[in-house]
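Example for tutorial group B:
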């Protein structure tokens, strides 16, 4: 529910202050968790950490999308997914090497560093415009160039006028924003993103790690944490690559290629699982190694675009008066779908077996690929309705 409150708070007090508030209370929550000595304190502190950490997620996306240049916006937004992969890997590493109470110090340090860095940042020029405050100084700060020139000044003035036009309808209330979203030209991009945010958690990205853990145990290659760390690193590498790819080739092409190869890879995993379970004479050790390689390859491919580019499009497609509403809803939706995807993995295995699970994932990947091919346009980092 923090992801629902975050955008609302950001529209009230600003993006910078909301990120700072979330970081401060995250520090407080992790401190309580680390010092907990009774069960209710553990549960309360864990709920607080989840709430305040999630509160910052949509606001961070809004903040980055509003201060980035159009040509760099996709790569900057994409960097949040790469940072997520690094954070997951580091979280597992700290859990392995440190007692859990000591491990709580790392998010405290991270949040403290965030507050320190935010102190030197300017507020979003978009938020300032929605509050009828001068935004030129903020925009100049984020567009600082090595050499001052008339051309740069004209470019900044042009961008400021465009932002003024985009924010001209801000501050009309939630009812007007809903009407603009649901009954205007913004409905189509909103529904496209709803489908993308619904489908991508069901492609197996959050579920096949559990299958890889069993393979690692059979081959004596390490613990569950080892699998999780490698999976996070592979996703991070894929996302890092996509930051370059979307800058050069755009969003649609990268999404199409990534989703297509993800579907093929998942299909190959399904085939090998069928062969492995069918006792077709394939060496079990060899088949396990092949499956592990394919699973981590899928994690890499999914990291290129399947998981992260819907977030990029969410940050690019809507005008400022709709971003808080859209980001709050979509991020909350994907958290629920991720939860459902993880919780339904074992029931699906019990119902149709391991091979059936991967056939299901492959089918979802295929549906996702077809949907992208038919409905997702190339917008080059611009608002959907302006293309």
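The residue assignment follows.
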């Amino acid at each position: 529910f923090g992801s629902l409150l975050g955008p609302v708070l950001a529209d009230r007090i600003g993006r910078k202050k909301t990120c700072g508030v979330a970081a401060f209370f995250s520090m407080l929550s992790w401190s309580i968790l680390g010092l907990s000595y009774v069960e209710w304190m553990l549960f309360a502190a864990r709920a607080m950490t989840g709430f305040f950490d999630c509160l910052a997620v949509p606001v961070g996306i809004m903040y980055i999308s509003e201060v980035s240049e159009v040509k760099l916006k996709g790569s900057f937004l994409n960097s949040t997914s790469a940072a997520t992969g690094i954070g997951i890997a580091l979280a597992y590493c700290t859990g392995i090497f440190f007692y859990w109470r000591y491990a709580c110090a790392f998010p405290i340090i991270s949040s403290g560093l965030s507050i320190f860095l935010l102190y030197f940042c300017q507020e979003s020029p978009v938020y300032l415009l929605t509050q009828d405050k001068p935004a030129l100084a903020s925009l100049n700060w984020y567009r600082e160039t090595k050499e001052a020139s008339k051309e740069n000044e004209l470019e900044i003035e042009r961008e400021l006028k465009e932002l003024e036009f985009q924010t001209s309808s801000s501050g009309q209330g939630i009812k007007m924003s809903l009407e603009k979203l649901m009954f205007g030209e913004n409905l189509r991009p909103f529904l496209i993103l709803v489908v993308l945010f619904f489908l991508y958690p069901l492609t197996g990205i959050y579920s096949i790690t559990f299958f890889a853990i069993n393979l690692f145990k059979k081959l004596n290659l390490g613990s569950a944490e080892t699998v999780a760390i490698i999976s996070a690193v592979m996703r991070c590498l894929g996302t890092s690559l996509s930051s370059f790819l979307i800058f050069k080739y755009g969003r649609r092409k990268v999404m199409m290629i990534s989703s297509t190869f993800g579907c093929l890879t998942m299909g190959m995993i399904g085939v090998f699982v069928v062969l492995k379970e069918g006792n077709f004479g394939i060496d079990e050790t060899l088949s396990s190694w092949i499956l592990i390689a394919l699973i981590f390859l899928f994690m890499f491919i999914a990291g290129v675009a399947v998981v992260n580019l819907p977030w990029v499009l969410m940050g690019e497609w809507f005008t400022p008066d709709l971003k808080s509403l859209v980001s709050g809803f979509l991020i909350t939706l994907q958290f629920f779908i991720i939860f459902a995807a993880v919780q339904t993995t074992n029931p699906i295995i019990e119902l149709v077996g391991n091979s059936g699970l991967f056939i299901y994932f492959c089918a979802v990947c295929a549906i996702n690929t077809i949907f992208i091919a038919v409905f997702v346009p190339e917008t080059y980092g611009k608002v959907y309705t302006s293309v």
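The radius of gyration is 22 Å. Compare this with the pattern of hydrophobic and polar residues in the output above.
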